Amino acid sequence: MLYTKVLGISGSPRKGNSLFLLKEALESAKGVDPDSVHTQLYSIKGKIFNPCIACRNCKDHDGDCVHKDDFEELREFWLDADVIIYSVPVYHMSVPGQLKCFIDRLGNSMSGKFRSKMPEGVYALPKLLKIIGSIAQGIHIFSGQEHTITDLINHTLMMQSIPVAGDMWESYIGAGGWTVNLIDRDGFEKLAKGDDIGVKVAIKASKDLGRRSVELAKIIQSGILASKALLGKDPVYQPVINMLEKRNAV
């Protein structure tokens, strides 16, 4: 059996609408194959992520960050996952600052963390090949949801991973939604009990994204293991091969 780990990250400093949509996505992801799909929900609410100060400590100390906060815990969850689903509120046309701090430090720490696993003179990031889906929601329509998702897609590509969306027509590049000007933290939950088409679309898009993320991960995992004799010759694939072999006892 090919096991797949799904990490859902609620990138909101509050407990509310982003968490609601993320739970819809994770439930759908688990439903692909409950026996082989493990889901984990992580919220940045109450967590501390200091900003990167470009001190380069992580470059010289195997990815170890000079800040001692909640970064390392989430980084290890992130690295251990096959699928990452971000669900975020739109803050100033992008992601909240806490999550941006994590993303900045994640990217910078990777070269240090994997440097010792690369041959002498090779400074490339490994092909992590994680499947990453993005959900963005706001109070207003046309208030930065697609821009925020695009920022997360750029992050995905920089992390040598693969972006995924749900199904059209509800989802082009991710799942986006708005709470019809409700500022309530449980706005989506309240509106879901009615017949607002925009809310129903956001929920369906989130569910589709969760399902498609796991399906694509299964395809990628199978392909990596089937091609390990070929891919294993290139050191940038070795970390993901090692992770899959260890998890699945291949």
Distance between the termini: 10 Å
Unreliable sequence segments: none
Strand-pairing-aware structural class? alpha/beta
Integer average pLDDT? 93
The CATH fourth-level homologous superfamily: Flavodoxin domain
CATH class: Alpha Beta
Number of domains: 1
Tell me the series of helices and strands, N- to C-terminal: EHEHHEHEHEEHHHH
Radius of gyration: 18 Å
Helix tally equals 9
**What is the architecture at the second tier of CATH?**
3-Layer(aba) Sandwich
Strand residue percentage: 5-15%
Give the overall form: globular
Can you walk me through this structure?
The chain is of the alpha/beta class and 250 residues long. It has a single domain (4-248), classed as Rossmann fold. It has helices at residues 17-31, 57-60, 71-80, 97-115, 145-158, 187-191, 197-226, 228-231, 238-248, and strands spanning 4-10, 37-43, 83-89, 131-138, 162-164, 175-178. Strands 1, 2, 3, 4, 5 and 6 form a 6-stranded parallel β-sheet that branches. α1 (17-31) crosses α7 (197-226). The longest helix is centred in the C-terminal third of the chain and has 30 residues, at 197-226. The protein is globular, with a radius of gyration of 18 Å. The mean pLDDT is 93.
